[in-house]
Amino acid sequence: MSADRYLFTSESVSMGHPDKVSDQISDAILDHCLAADPMSRVACETMVTTDLAVVAGEITTRADLSRATVDRVVRETIREIGYTDPTIGFAADTCQVLCQLHAQSANIAQGVDTGGAGDQGMMFGFACDETRTLMPLPIYLAHRLVENHAKLRKSGELKWLRPDAKSQVTVEYNSDGSPFRIHTVVLSTQHDESVMEKRGDKQYFKDEARRLLIDKLIMPTLREETAREDKVSLLSGKDKICLVLPGESPSVGEDTILFHINPTGCFLEGGPHGDCGLTGRKIIVDTYGGRGRHGGGAFSGKDPTKVDRSAAYMSRYIAKNIVAAGLASQCEVQLSYAIGYPDPINIWISTFGTAKHGLTDGQLADLVRKHFKLTPRGIIETLNLRKPIYRETARHGHFGRELPNFTWEKTDKAAALKAAALKAA
Asked: Using an 8 Å Cβ cutoff, are 133 and 409 in contact?
């Protein structure tokens, strides 16, 4: 690697990863509540482990939260994810479901009822012009890999795939921050016994299966996404593919992409049976893959009065519109709140020196104050957040997917921001 370039890595996890199973269950409970009562107050946490799902938290709602209903929502979510085989230690029809839900604290409610924030804290949003969705390239590609992993698994094209998986993408950057090439891809996926072979006294994942994952999942995803981004130079026809087998340390040149597939050698035992899952433990996967800052608050299981979630969505919305307006090449936004108080304590903008048209970060912050409603109530109204839209956010990333209900991904403020900025400059 050239001395003036550097590497940056981001990871994603599949919808069947134990922590994501927990996130999806928590958000399925949230959606169930919002569908019946848009004013529901929900703080739902889930833990999953071998043959067990525990749902707990504070919920005030008119929705039916009987044990039978919660049990049904949990099992439907687990089944849709793909855990249907009891022999692997966790399945929709055989796991035990425990429910420990009670009403929200009246002390919190008295501040939220008047339009205040549901908690204190700081939230961040980020956008950059590396991809058409204005997401950093490593996390964007990592998400697409696990998303396509789920499609291959559900279609039956690779029948031996199981739901639990992780991806990781390392991109080599030029010194100016522009992507130079894809450097390394790591993919670990749970599998069944049909793609295992014995070597000595141990069982290993077959090399043929590794190559199938490269041919049917990884390379098609990289080709499609880099072509879509008009970044085909990141993946030229001259690139060599190097499958790094467990225990190897190859020496390769700059035109080689390294692939580590199930690098431990085998991934038979996985899912909640292999690793306990908890709601809110994949906060970097959920956001920008480590590229932008994170305030620390998780998203899933929380209704939009909780600014941990809604203000993080608004921060992304602001940052994305600033970059979409051509006012900066990258932008990070911080909002902070006090519990029970409606207005943000601060609004902070950093463009990392990429602001255009002679604008300063302070001027951009002033534009944000004028063009965005930043009270919890204003955020909820702007982004239409009282709808049952959240279960889909709990897999494959909360940001960078331009789905109809992902209102925080819109760039409808870009034109007005640009006009106001040019006038102020």
From this structure: yes
- CB-CB contact of 42 with 275 (8 Å): no
CA distance 294 to 334: 9
- Is pLDDT at 220 greater than 80 in this prediction? yes
CB distance 116 to 51 below 8 Å: no
Report the interhelical angle of 18-36 vs 67-81 (nearest 10°).
130
List the beta strands (DSSP E) in 280-405: 330-337, 346-350
Contact 339, 305 (CB under 8 A): no
pLDDT in the model for residue 112: 63
Q: What is the structure's pLDDT at 106?
A: 66
Reported confidence tier of residue 110, pLDDT bands at 50, 70, 90: low
Instruction: Please provide residue 134's backbone torsions phi and psi, each rounded to the nearest 5 degrees.
Output: 60, 40
* Per-residue confidence band for 199, with pLDDT thresholds at 50, 70 and 90: confident
- 207 residue type, one letter: D
Mapping DSSP to helix (H, G, I), strand (E, B) and coil, where does residue 76 land? Answer: helix
pLDDT digit string, tens, across residues 283-309: 999 999 999 999 999 999 999 999 999
Residues 4/25, Cβ–Cβ less than 8 Å: no
Helix (H, G, I), strand (E, B) or coil at 7: strand
What are the residue ranges of helices labelled H in 229-348?
A: 271-274, 283-286, 307-324
- Torsion sign across C-alpha atoms 304, 310, 314, 316: negative
pLDDT confidence of residue 228: 75
What's the Cα-to-Cα distance from 392 to each of 148, 216, 399, 420, rounded to whole Å?
15, 25, 11, 35
Beta strands in 139-293 (DSSP E): 161-173, 179-191, 196-199, 202-205, 240-243, 256-261, 277-278
Give the range among 44-53, 106-115, 324-333 with minimum mean pLDDT: 106-115
Q: Please report, for residues 16, 52, 166, 211, 223, the alpha-carbon distance to residue 79 in angstroms, rounded to integers and kept in the order given.
A: 11, 14, 20, 29, 31
